[in-house]
Amino acid sequence: EATFASVETLVEDGTLFLPRSFVMTNRFDNRAKIAQATRNSRLGALLFHGTEDDFVPPSNSERLNAAIGSAGPHELVLIPGADHDTISRAPANALFEQKLGEFLRR
Fold first, then answer.
1. Is the dihedral of CA 64, 101, 39, 71 positive or negative?
2. pLDDT tens across 64-94, in order?
């Protein structure tokens, strides 16, 4: 839910201001991990991101979704009007609950 592709992408997007030395030694590269996690999951991967997230831009989840590739079933759900903290709350809650329910019933 609203995660970042990597610390490097947050710095590139201008979202996070960190010393270059921190970024070079602490990559937190979720793109490198998500395909393997999807392969290991019986259900695949379901990603949620709010379209109004100004802390972690939605492009990060788009990058993660693309990184999964053919590793398994996956879906990115962009929640209209939701920001970083309101993805699972009303009024976004209906779409969140619907997609989560569909995913868990697979």
1. negative
2. 999 999 999 999 999 999 998 888 887 778 9
Q: What are phi and psi of 77, to 5 degrees?
A: -115, 115
Q: Compute the distance between CA of residue 78 and CA of residue 81 in angstroms, rounded to an integer.
A: 9
72: its two tokens? 């398994």
Q: From residue 45, how far is each of 42, 67, 93, 101 by CA, in Å?
A: 9, 11, 19, 13
Give the relative orientation of helices 30-40 and 59-68 as an angle to the nearest 10 degrees: 50
> What CA–CA distances, in Å, run from 56 to 32, 78, 101, 104?
18, 13, 25, 26
